[in-house]
Hints:
- By secondary structure, the protein is of the alpha/beta class.
- Helices cover 48% and strands 9% of the residues.
- It is built from 24 helices and 14 strands.
- The protein has helices at 17-31, 37-44, 48-54, 63-72, 77-93, 122-134, 148-162, 182-186, 209-212, 217-228, 248-252, 255-260, 273-286, 293-303, 310-322, 331-337, 343-353, 360-369, 397-406, 423-427, 429-437, 439-457, 468-478, 493-515; strands at 2-3, 6-7, 137-142, 172-176, 200-204, 237-244, 265-267, 290-291, 328-329, 371-372, 380-381, 384-385, 410-413, 416-419.
- The strands form five sheets. Strands 4-5-6-3-7 form a five-stranded parallel sheet, with helices on one face. A three-stranded antiparallel sheet has the order 12-14-13.
- Helix 4 packs antiparallel against helix 5, helix 5 packs across helix 16 and helix 6 crosses helix 7.
- The radius of gyration is 29 Å and the shape is flat.
- The relative contact order is 0.07.
- Residues 526-538 have low confidence and may be disordered.
Amino acid sequence: MTDGGRPESPLDPSAGPVQRLAIELRKLREEAGGPTYRAMAARTGHGASTLSQAAAGERLPTLPVVLAYVQACGGDPEEWEDRWRQAAAEEAAEPRADDAEPPYRGLARFEPDDAALFFGRDQLIDDLLRLSGRYRITVVVGASGSGKSSLLRAGLIPRLRTTDDPHLRPAALRVITPGAHPLRIHDQRLTPKDGEKGDTWLVVDQMEELYTLCTDPEERIRFLDRLLTAAAPDSRLRVLIAVRADFFGHLAGHRPLADALREATLLVPPMNRGELREAIVKPAQAAGHIVERTLTAHIIDEVDGEPGALPLVSHALLETWHRRKGRALTLTAYEAAGGVHGALAQTAEDLYAHLPPTQAPSARRILLRLITPGEGAQDTRRPAPREELETGTSSATAEVVERLVRARLVTLDGGTVHLAHEALIAAWPRLREWIDDARERLRLHRQLTEAAHTWNDLGRESGALYRGTRLAAAEEVFLNTNTNTNSGSDLTPLEREFLTHSRTARRREEEAVAALPGACASSPPPCRSCSYSPWPPG
């Protein structure tokens, strides 16, 4: 076909999805009577050369350009959007020839060794250095996804390692997350390093774990009091805390800590447009790539002022990088990946859709193990020992974990498995639905897991077993085969043993009561006919 007398270059349908789509577009134009590209441009507002390139078959056009081409030729926009997405998916699926290290971290936080790829927070790093140099205890507060962990790890720590300021130069740098037992796990790391000039800098990341994972209020207070020893001028310990904004009120509820942080609090705002541009463009430049200006502008317009968007941006850029053509990250590849608000869900859904039927239930079970349901707050991620993911009823666990790791949806830290970021909870509708459908069960399961570990740590003392209403509730949810034949299939061997021993202890106590003179054996204690009860209420 020609455009005003100039013949278009021939295309080969076997050359791939881009040329096939171009052939289909040319056929549509021909069926519409062969309007010139200048006439099509007048109908759509897109340039004639832009529309011509859409059917040239050299590279995949953007979705808006395809829809404008279709509109000018009287085609069905929904049908052609489906065709474009299929072509984009096929092109993205074509294997790449290199194994280059991506310049974006996706959902993973930036670590100190990633400092050369960490951009957009220079002013905030400077502010944090000044604040933490002035106060011995400092807190960084921001929404989930605002980049608090990356700010500390890839921003502050590299600066401290290279500083010429003797007042700031650390004797030691330590990074911890509280976990379920902050004092038991980190006791030695809370003590300054001896025999070295300078302070020991202790970064306490993800401080919300003190309230989502640690269930012992006394241990929480003792941990906070240990951190507060840094406030003494001669302590030689300097503490930086990172906490999610919705948990900052918990810290403020501890009056001595609230007093210490009154003027030592740094809020982490969303990046401004200039900072976003740096975070998008400079990592690619550092790796020898370029980002299309239209792509940069598009992402900035999408997320400008949106709190917690950074992991979504990083994941979308990572998926765009995987779909790059040559050195360029393009808007076409970005749209094929699903964009900022769709790439993460698309990655997760693609993984789930390609799991064998025997592995899909294991994926659901594993991911829910990595969630703590919120009570008056957002749901949070929960690190789990790898052995806790093994139930004894499924042999698919190891392979599913590896699939999740390859998709960067979970990460491994030694023997611990982590959800890559809490952004996954909000961004993936299927995971949100799983959590909402099982919220009360998850709450009871987290309690059961903690109780089983406590019982085991105490040498399996009978006093640590479930009794009364707690045992009855666990039986109803996890062992009620009348309502759900798989009700206990997600329990670990330890959790099953704990419930088995709890039920055995109850039966023995009932038998002991029945054997007492004058005790009523017709109903389990506490008996409706007498006041005797062998255990305190559950």
